[in-house]
Amino acid sequence: MSKLVLSRITLVLLAAAVCVPPALADSQARIVRLSDVQGSVQIDKNTGLGFENAFLNLPVTQGAQLRTRGNGRAEVEFEDGSTLRLAPNSTLEFSTLNVTEAGKHISTVNLVEGMAYVNWLGKSGDEFTLNFSREKVALDHAAHFRVDTSTDAATLAVFKGDVEIEGPSGKVPVEKKKTATFDPANDDKYTLANNIQEEPLDSWDKEAVSYHDQYAKNNSTPYGYGVSDLNYYGGYTNVAGYGMMWQPYFTGIGWDPFMDGAWSWYPGFGYMFVSAYPWGWMPYMYGNWMFVPGFGWMWQPGLWNSFALAPRIVGTTPVGFHPPIIPAATTTKTVVVGRGGPVFTHMSSHVVLRAGSAGLGISRGSISNLKHLNTQVAKTGFAAVHPAPQFSASSGRMGGFQGGHGAAPPPISHSSGSMSSGHVSSGGAHR
Questions:
Q1: What is the distance between the alpha carbons of residues 56 and 64, in angstroms, rounded to a whole number?
Q2: What are the residue boundaries of the structural domains of the chain, listed by start?
């Protein structure tokens, strides 16, 4: 091995030692993932700064609050892949996120106002409690339900499984396809209906559940959060000398996984790196990033015992590469990297994908075969993607791929906002 290569390896290892804080394996602290953000969503990270704009892949810690405005929707993923979705004009508090000495995850959330969808998978004996109005739902098994609470009434409708609600009226069992309604003005007296009244956002919830079910199949990692996005936005390759490595579609040798994101500060943790990519959770919390000759940047799964506050980088790196550096602990404000965490591709009529986009601008589940599209981009240089609504009643059919040739593509425009995409057509210019 040459002296130049040895020198570069030494520099990377030194940088990693500086950038990555001590392991949190012995800590009982937990983080969960803000896995989808649409419209106006805000988070109070318990930093003393109050509510600030939230964006995809932000960690959620104990004591945080999440709220949506009139056009806002949000989804939170827990470690086992369970999800909680928040409808517009809703507020949620994460009062407990910890782990017992036996390794059981304990989650308690309070729905202050509005509507939430819970799809709890009930894996590994973890416990989940949802408080709403003066009622409480405690789960240690799988269940899928919707809760809506206001000053006038509170309802819980069960789509799958069964739940038991505990409150001023005692314990109320609610089975599949039934709805319990509570009257706050009458000591939370309840009525039980043998049906579920459909709400406009039920289709959004249903399609989100379907997305996770489809792309989280055959998960071999100890965790479930982020797995569906890894399988949708990229694939694994068995690389000689490295083992199984994951890489997002639409990359290239010059692509850098750390060029867009943000450093977000949390009490008790300090700064955590937040990736701007829609799949950017698990590869930045666990495992190692490596620059593999002939492939570019790839992620090696592993190191599951604790999450990293900064990405782990090992091995040789490209000439001129600068590893992400944790900001000085002199401020609690978000520190933007590149275009920043809140920046997405805005798709008003169409967006053009090239190698190096790494999935930025593609809403999850909106195109049926990204692997095929990735091949087309590598061959022809680009592909135009026409938008379709994400997770709505009109987006039940996933977009397909349409081949063809066209003029040189316009540049991709970037602005804050949600992402959506649908049908695509390939370009004729080779990269």
A1: 15
A2: 31-201, 210-337, 343-426
Q: Which two tokens stand for residue 110?
A: 């309070």
Rounded distance between C-alpha atoms, residue 298 and residue 296, angstroms: 6
Q: Which residues contact 418 (CB under 8 A, 6 or more apart)?
A: 37, 38, 39, 344, 363, 390
Query: Which pLDDT band, with edges at 50, 70 and 90, does 131 fall under?
Result: very high
**CATH of the domain spanning 31-201:** 2.60.120.1440
Query: In this structure, are residues 347 and 407 in contact, taking their beta carbons and an 8 Å threshold?
Result: no
Closest CA to 417 of 345, 362, 341, 338: 345
Span 23-65, pLDDT tens digits: 343 457 899 999 999 999 999 999 988 999 999 999 999 999 9
Closest to 75 (Cα-Cα) out of 56, 101, 100: 56
pLDDT band at 347 (very low <50, low <70, confident <90, very high): very low
In degrees, rounded to 5, the angle at the alpha carbon of residue 235 between the alpha carbons of residues 231 and 237 is 145
